[in-house]
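Notes from the 1:1 (GR / supervisor)

We went over the backlog. Supervisor wanted to see one worked example end to end before approving the batch request, so GR pasted a single chain during the call. The sequence is below; no edits were made to it. Supervisor asked that the structure be written out right there so they could see what the output format looks like.
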Amino acid sequence: MRIPRDWDKPTEGNKELCDKFSYGEYLSYGKLIYRLFTPTTDDKVPLVVYLHGADAFGNDNEEHLSMHDIGTTFAKDEWQAHDPCFILAPQCNAGSYWSMRSSGGLVCELIEKMIIENNMIDSSRIYIYGYSAGAIGTIRILKEKPDLFAAAVSICGATERDKLEILKSIPLWLIHADDDEIVRCSYREGTVGDTLLGSADIYEILGDTAEDMHFTEYPDGFMKEKYGVNPHCTWVPAAEDMEVKRWMFSHILYGSRDRKFAK
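Structure output shown during the call:
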């Protein structure tokens, strides 16, 4: 992916947070490399799964965390002090996509393996979020494995129309900038409008009937005026949005789509 000049940059403290993540590799029908943050706690705690965008595809097991602050936001001391959690950050190989069955399937296999092997992970509080290609992958994974996740956040993502009704039963928060030209907020008037749906389209179709769906839409010019970055970089405000983060962590899953609030 050719990165625009007005892309965001990580803050100075991000490297220190990246260093808190261990390195791992999962082998199945393919290989998935990942980083894992392990909290300091004796309690059973959530697992947060983070999927990066196309700007960090590769096999260095570094850039998906080091490129932006969004992947390390839950590792900050102030968050961990209140809501300790594991953070799983896999890296997608170049030439592949999270939305492909092979890549998404490996992520779900790894999650399930971690739940079985680590009794400190609360299997009723598995959360997933991603930006751009990672958000597209997040929604695809939700469609394929809806009973695995308690809640999800999609940042500047999109999806195809298949299995759309599945999303109605999953707590989902959509975030997008209205003037995003990389992944459009809406494809209603575009050439692929019959097949691809942006965040605004998803919310327009499902918002009124979904059990717990939210949509944050930043207006035209907001990202440039407030943050000085490309409108696609909505992960910048999302990384610090305490309302969205608290909302995600408020959900707990009991059984098949039988949801209650954790606190």
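Supervisor's comment: Residues 256-263 have pLDDT under 50 and may be disordered.
Batch request approved.
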